[in-house]
UniProtKB/TrEMBL annotation, chain B:
The chain crosses the membrane at residues 33-54, 309-330. This is Cell cycle control protein. Belongs to the CDC50/LEM3 family. It is found in: Membrane. InterPro entries: CDC50/LEM3_fam. Keywords: Membrane, Transmembrane, Transmembrane helix. GO terms for cellular component: endoplasmic reticulum; Golgi apparatus; plasma membrane. GO terms for biological process: phospholipid translocation.
Length: 1151, 338
């Protein structure tokens, strides 16, 4: 042991670049050394982004980094500087509004983060200072402080364990919130430290902080009264990590070595960077297109203006002489200002209001998630939580789901399900799963003695009771009256009348693995109760309430290579027995084959049901055999060299020739509806990857239970075990395996029709991929650079062709690495991470969408997530219903916004050809400003909040509908082109329709003529009505709010126009629109042209709808299939999303 | 009960709105609605189109270009910008009764009244009778703001370039010229000369213009625009107002007079007519044209073939589309109808 530590220390010495020296309790190490108090960071955790001082500049800087905001700033400045057709207020005011609202929102969010940080930082802790216990705030802990931690508290920083209240100088810790392992781990105090911490005079030398949770090297120099300092080496077993929780130990003292942002937990976090949704990227791309349109429009107009003016007589007709100033201006400067003026005139094509509307839609829309009562969990009395509203639509775009296992897929709550003794199945009455044909019995053991001999039953149960390393939790009351305290916390025992002890009292077991506890509890159900270990002998209460004592001779520990453990006990009668339990593959070769056949079927069936199976075997040791084994074991334990190999050899030698008694099935209780949820996600075309810190076997069985792996799934395994199988160099083996799997899964796989068939359909073999942390780091950090990228590629390709991927033994940062790798792979798929513990935080932050589960492992994940839900099952609705709807809504919102502004500005552009390219606005300034703010904003906002093109029930029933919008379907270039063409078509129609009407401007029956503002008003009226009615056509879900805003907007437009034109406004210098609207309405021709143009604009839309309808026998069949897949569709579902389909199906529907 | 309420204090409200379950109408555009709809719309459009077309056909229009570009034109002599106070006569002939009331328009082409710089070159305060801005016109009026240091009223390009040709129409009945009474009222928007444009409340109006000069292009000051009617002067002179309402397009016509009174109120009888033009307005420098248009109007306004034809075309397209749809759906046996 010491040697190993020294080895590690020396190894560490070589690698260590820098180290830090810490004076325990701030006392100088050796008296003759001067103390230079080293500077370490304080124990504050900072996740907030701004402070009061840097908020304004930093926030403004971040906001103007958005190209849209920057663009509006430029437009505003141009308007201020250059003589432009519109006033700077028209763009300055909205910009100011947007910036302010965003700043307030971000400021509020940051304030929440500050609050959460404070909660952690102000947490009171006890620090020993000069022998006194002082309460301090957690953030004030300095490196070197001696900190006291009590049971069930979390460690405030990384500590070296100095003293424990337990007798054996150990303490138990769960690191559930760090790496997801909820079992108890034992940590040791530094040997030989003084009991009196006040007089402890020591320094600790250790490496600088690094993120690996399982690595730590250091040494401690203990100074005692002028003697040579004693040196103790320190390893990870001495280090208590911040975030872990003290268990089953009353209190400990430890010295802080890493604090604040330097703790291993903090180093495993990644900075929370702002996430941008794919929709936002699309918006930016579209924005660039529209910027190009804008610039080219301005360029065309400027060029044509000067071409046109070069014709004689056009430049300066006598009626429109130039001012002196204009004459004096340099030609090129004039060209430039003309260009800018055109830019300003057309800048409405990219409206600020779109950003406001998008932000509003996201902000308000996210309330529907918080409000959803389906997300309300009565247990924790909370609903869903939305931390960022920026990603709502991303929920509808997820392609990869990365899920944590412990606490996310499973409840981390093991339950004994059934056992099989001598080939007879025993199922606990309450067990929920159904029985199938080859089950022999479903009664409890004691009623079916005829099935397996009573002897064998009891032997099996004794084996369960003895073969483990479980400890009984000692709590004062129970210690007094142990025999009576038989019940455990979870299970009620009323089933079995023969259990003599009432279940009022609590008994809890502690074990390094939760399934050991489950087995002990399982045995207890059948009447055998483990009472505890007393002075080397195990006490069992048997069925007849007799206490049996077994002397524990040896424990042959579990290890992942052998995958089994054994105990050797001696019974009262003097028999020496070996009980062994382990994975089927490691037990079956060591027992008699005729026994195996009886049990194998059970084991295999259980395994595919997702239970963890263990086989139990025993062997009677004769005195000689025992003596031999005993000697072997002792010898091996004392060996100084190759101790482990030697032990292994003895173990293997002892564990032979056993006879198989039975098998057990333990279920790691899945979260409610976990399997259904996973199935729905896969049905929706998402690839589910399980990333866990847990052991492979455990994780694998969970995958089976969640139906991520099916019975016929072929597993491709890439783990340390498979790498070592070949007996060659790991690298080579890795290379071979990767190639082999690639061939299998990628090259031989039939080309799947993307997004159409689910790969688990019986025709295709589907694959599951398993990799562990160590292998993954080999893949990612291969020795040679070229190999590394090649392996990575192979690995990704294999994974992409697998239905489910399981990554086990992952460190938190490795989880994030995987997410990052997938995120950056070809096609940059949208990823989602879901987890509940602090160990998931890094992947939650890394993925496009991070979901936190409000589980038991603290709030870290929730705090860092984008969305938090109480249970895994809520993910289904969150993605399939909310995500889908949000995506469709915002996609439509974006497309519609670009469309409506294109057909708004296009007539103004066209008008330049008729007004001598003089930047004459077609519409009045009021219309220009109000168009996006008042007349057309509310209907689309209401649409984007309320639209349900398919109703929620159908979305939940038909997971496949999710695929219709996959890959940003409605925001790709084709739909965008469609909308753009539609906008161009409408714009042309509006302008030229009115243009031909105005070939004779005498439009009233009194012979009077209309002027340019009448022209603009007619175009504008057609425009407002058309874009609003176009939205009305697209609306599939008319609530009263939709009715109200759509008809209300139109009414408001009419009312406003009357009002605006009906009064001489004192604040206006020009009354351009005075009675223009009223006069327009008095003209029959104007009415007729308005109606004509509106209908003409919308008729193609209606036609398109009709022609896009599925028709003909094929389409009908498809519909039938779809509806049968959907099962019970609600009657409302018959209203298929006809209009939406015209856009969402754009990419894959052929008329 | 109280306890239960407390327990669910965090529970989201179970309202139709928060749960996105508001009752909603989910319209379906099925063939059963669309085909009859198209037929109805089509028929209605065809009906309107026929009415428009027939009406438009019945409107009589007579255009006389008097720019005088061609040498043969009687106004050729006047088209020389150096010739002042030139009067020319255009003769024309009406075959059949030109039904009244007849509207007398003048038309200009290639004239950009919709130029931005031109359009903003006016002072709205002046035009609403604000005497302060008589002395200090708005900067926007440049370069027609001051002559020397005297302010121009009304200032600006638009006012300055007011159309100043005047017309007299005679019917020639057996060699004798009978003047057709032209009515200069009711040619501008009622709101313009009653509300929007105001003369300063100074009587006589002339005094308000003390210390100002008339626009450089004008031959008469604003208060003497209509010698026949003192109320039709200043900024509410209807010819001025018609001019100030800027045309939308470079080729435009504006209402000059109405023939609503006297013998010709019922229309212009067939015969020969002579149009006497006081030719002042230069257009050749920018390649423009001037014309006089006589037209009667109907309920739809002046003659406009476009609207009628558009309605007819769209209407028949709708009907054709509905027939096509009918065939398509008949072929597939109305899969949507259940």
């Amino acid at each position: 042991m010491l040697r190993r530590r020294l080895n590690r220390l020396f190894g560490g010495d070589e690698r260590r670049v820098e180290s830090r020296t810490i004076n325990v309790g701030h006392r100088s190490g050796s008296p003759n050394e001067a103390i230079i108090p080293p500077k370490f960071c304080d124990n504050r955790i900072v996740s907030s982004k701004y402070t009061v001082w840097n908020f304004l500049p930093k926030n403004l800087f971040e906001q103007f980094r958005r190209i849209a905001n920057f663009y509006f700033l430029i437009i505003f400045l141009v308007q201020v500087i250059v003589d432009t057709p519109t006033s700077p207020v028209t763009s300055g005011l909205p910009l100011f509004f947007v910036i302010t609202v965003t700043a307030i929102k971000q400021g509020y969010e940051d304030w929440l983060r500050h609050k959460a940080d404070n909660e952690v930082n102000k947490y009171p802790v006890t620090v020993l200072e000069d022998g006194r216990r002082i309460r301090k705030e957690s953030e004030k802990i300095k490196v070197g402080d001696v900190v006291e931690v009590e049971e069930d508290e979390t460690f405030p920083c990384d500590l070296i364990l100095l003293q424990s209240s337990r007798d054996d100088d150990t303490c138990f810790v769960t690191t559930a919130s760090l790496d997801g392992e909820s079992n108890h781990k034992t940590h040791y105090t530094v040997p030989d430290t003084e009991r009196n911490l006040e007089s402890l005079n020591a320094t600790i030398e250790c490496e600088e902080p690094q993120p690996d949770l399982y690595k730590f090297v250091g040494r401690m120099h203990i100074y005692t009264n002028n003697q040579e300092p004693a040196v103790r080496s320190l390893g990870p077993e001495n280090l208590l990590l911040k975030g872990a929780t003290l268990k089953n130990t009353q209190k400990i003292y430890g010295v802080a070595v890493y604090s604040g942002m330097e703790t291993k937990m903090a180093l495993n976090y990644q900075g929370k960077s702002q996430k941008r949704s794919a929709v936002e990227k699309s918006i930016n791309a579209f924005l660039l297109v529209y910027l190009c349109i804008l610039v080219s429009k301005a360029l065309v107009c400027t060029t044509l203006k000067y071409v046109w003016q070069s014709k004689p007589g056009q430049d300066e007709p006598w009626y429109n002489e130039k001012t002196q100033k204009e004459k004096d201006t340099n030609l090129y400067l004039k060209m430039f200002t003309d260009f800018l003026s055109f830019m300003v005139l057309f800048n409405f094509i990219i409206p600020v209001s779109m950003y406001v509307t998008v932000e509003m839609q996201k902000f308000l829309g996210s309330f529907f998630i918080t409000w959803d009562k389906d997300f309300f969990d009565p247990e924790i009395k909370e609903g869903a939580l939305v931390n960022t509203s920026d990603l709502n639509e991303e929920l509808g775009q997820v392609e990869y789901v990365f899920t944590d296992k412990t606490g996310t897929l499973t409840q981390n709550n093991m339950e004994f399900i059934e056992c099989c003794i001598d080939g007879f199945q025993y199922k606990y009455q309450d067990a929920r799963s159904e029985l199938d044909g080859f089950c022999v019995t479903d009664g409890p053991v004691n009623k079916l003695q005829q099935k397996a001999g009573r002897e064998r039953e009891e032997l099996f149960l004794r084996a369960l009771c003895l073969c483990h390393t479980v400890q009984v939790k000692e709590s004062p009351e129970q210690a007094q009256d142990q025999v009576d305290g038989l019940t455990d916390q979870v299970d009620d025992l009323e089933v079995d009348g023969e259990v003599p002890y009432p279940s009022q009292e609590q008994r809890s077991f502690i074990a390094s693995s939760p399934d050991e506890v489950a087995l002990v509890k399982g045995a207890m159900r059948y009447g055998f109760t483990f009472l505890g270990l007393e002075s080397k002998s195990m006490k069992i209460l048997n069925r007849n309430n007799g206490v049996e004592m077994y002397e524990l001779l040896h424990v042959l520990n579990f290890d992942p290579v052998r995958r089994r453990m054994s105990v050797i006990v001696r019974s009262k009668s003097g028999d020496t027995l070996l009980f062994c339990k382990g994975a089927d593959s490691s037990i079956f070769p060591r027992v008699r084959q005729e026994e195996v056949e009886r049990i194998r079927m059970h084991v295999e069936r259980n395994a595919t049901e997702g239970y963890r199976t263990l086989c139990v075997a025993y062997k009677c040791l004769s005195a000689e055999e025992y003596a031999q084994a005993d000697e072997g074991l002792r010898e091996a334990r004392l060996a100084l060299q190759n101790r482990e190999e030697k032990l292994m050899a003895v173990y293997n030698q002892v564990e032979t020739g056993m006879s198989l008694i039975g098998a057990t099935a333990v279920e790691d209780r899945l979260q409610e509806e976990a399997a259904e949820t996973m199935e729905a996600l896969q049905g929706a075309g998402m690839k589910v990857w399980v990333l866990t810190g847990d052991k492979m076997e455990t994780a694998k069985s969970t995958c089976y239970a969640c139906r991520l792996f099916q019975r016929n799934t072929e597993l491709l395994e890439l783990t340390v075990r498979t790498l070592e199988d070949g007996g060659r160099r790991r690298e080579e083996r890795l290379h071979d395996l990767l190639n082999e799997y690639h061939k299998k899964a990628v090259q031989d796989a039939p080309p799947a029709k993307a997004g159409v068939t689910r790969s688990w359909s019986s025709a295709n073999q589907d694959y599951g991929f398993i990799i562990d942390g160590a292998t993954l780091s080999m893949v990612l950090n291969s020795s040679s650079e070229s190999n590394s990228s090649r392996y990575k590629n192979l690995f990704l390709q294999i994974c992409q062709n697998c239905t489910a991927v399981l990554c086990c033994r992952m460190a938190p940062l490795q989880k994030a690495q995987i997410v990052k790798m997938v995120k950056n792979s070809k096609g940059s798929p949208i990823t989602l991470s879901i987890g509940d513990g602090a160990n998931d935080v890094s992947m939650i932050l890394e993925a496009h969408v991070g979901i936190g589960i409000k589980g038991k492992e603290g709030r870290q994940a929730v705090r860092n997530s984008d969305y938090a839900i109480p249970k895994l099952k809520h993910l289904k609705k969150l993605l399939l219903a909310h995500g889908h709807l949000y995506y469709v809504r915002i996609a439509h919102l974006v497309q519609y916004f670009f469309y409506k502004n294109l057909c708004f500005i296009l007539p103004q552009f066209l008008y330049q050809f008729f007004c001598g390219y003089s930047q004459q606005p077609l519409y009045d300034a009021a219309y220009l400003t109000m168009y996006n703010i008042c007349f057309t904003s509310m209907p689309i906002l209401a649409y984007s909040l309320l639209e349900q093109h398919i109703c929620i029930e159908v979305l939940l029933d038909n997971a496949t509908l999710y695929r219709e919008i996959a890959k940003n379907a409605t925001l790709r270039w084709r739909p965008f082109l469609y909308w753009t063409l539609l906008g161009v078509f409408h714009g042309l129609l509006f302008f030229f329709g009115v243009r031909y009407l105005f070939s004779n401007p005498a439009l009233q029956d009194n012979g009077q003529v209309f002027g340019n503002w009448s022209y603009g008003t007619i175009v504008f009226t057609v425009l407002v009505f058309t874009v609003t009615l176009k939205l009305a056509l697209d609306t599939r879900h008319w609530t009263w709010i939709n009715h109200f805003v759509i008809w209300g907007s139109l009414a408001f437009y009419v009312f406003f126009s009357f009002f605006w034109g009906g009064i001489i406004w004192p604040f206006l210098s020009q009354q351009r629109l005075y009675f223009v609207f009223a006069n327009m309405l008095s003209s029959v021709s104007a009415w007729l042209v308005i109606i004509l143009l509106i209908l003409l604009s919308l008729l193609p839309e209606i036609l398109l709808v009709v022609f896009r309808k599925p028709r003909g026998p094929n389409a009908r069949q498809k519909e039938l299939v779809q509806s049968s897949v959907g099962g019970h569709q609600s009657p409302r579902s018959s209203a298929r999303p006809l209009l939406m389909r015209t856009f969402s199906d754009e990419s894959n529907t052929v008329i | 009960m109280v306890k239960q309420e407390k327990e669910f204090v965090n529970r989201p409200d179970n309202t139709a709105f928060t749960q996105q379950r508001l009752p909603a109408w989910q319209p379906m555009l099925s063939a059963g609605i669309i085909i009859p709809g198209f037929v109805l719309i089509g028929l209605a459009f065809i009906g309107i189109g026929v009415a428009l077309f027939v009406t438009s056909q019945s409107i009589q229009v007579l255009e006389v270009d008097y720019t005088g570009v061609e040498q043969s034109s009687p106004c050729f002599k006047c088209s020389d910008p150096d010739v002042k106070n030139c009067v020319c006569k255009m003769e024309f002939n009406i075959d059949s009764l030109f039904k009244g009331p007849v509207f007398f328009y003048y038309g200009l082409s290639n004239y950009f009244q919709n130029y931005r710089g031109y359009g903003v070159s006016k002072d709205p305060n002046q035009l609403s009778g604000d005497l302060d801005s008589f002395k200090v016109p708005s900067d926007s009026c440049a370069p027609y703001e001051y002559v020397g240091k005297t302010p121009i009223v009304p200032c600006g390009s638009v006012a300055n370039s007011m159309f100043n040709d005047s017309f007299k129409l005679y019917q020639i009945v057996s060699g004798a010229k009978i003047q057709v009474t032209l009515d200069g009222k009711g040619i501008a928007w009622w709101t313009d000369y009653n509300v929007k444009y105001r003369n300063p409340s100074v009587t006589p109006l002339k005094n308000a213009f003390n210390g100002t000069v008339k626009p450089t292009f004008w031959s008469k000051p604003a208060y003497e625009l209509d010698p026949t009617d003192p109320a039709n002067n200043g900024f509410i002179n209807q010819d001025f107002l018609v001019w100030m309402r800027r045309a939308a397009l470079p080729n435009f016509r504006k209402l000059y007079r109405r023939i609503t009174e006297g013998d010709y109120a019922k229309g212009l009888p067939a015969g020969n007519y002579s149009l006497e033009i006081a030719y002042n307005y230069p257009v050749l420098s920018f390649d423009g044209r001037k014309k006089v248009v006589l037209s009667n109007v109907s309920w739809m306004g002046g003659k406009n073939e476009f609207l009628g034809i558009a309605y007819l075309v769209i209407g028949s397209m709708c009907v054709v589309m509905s027939i096509v749809m009918l065939i398509v759906y008949a072929k597939f046996k109305f899969p949507e109808e259940e």
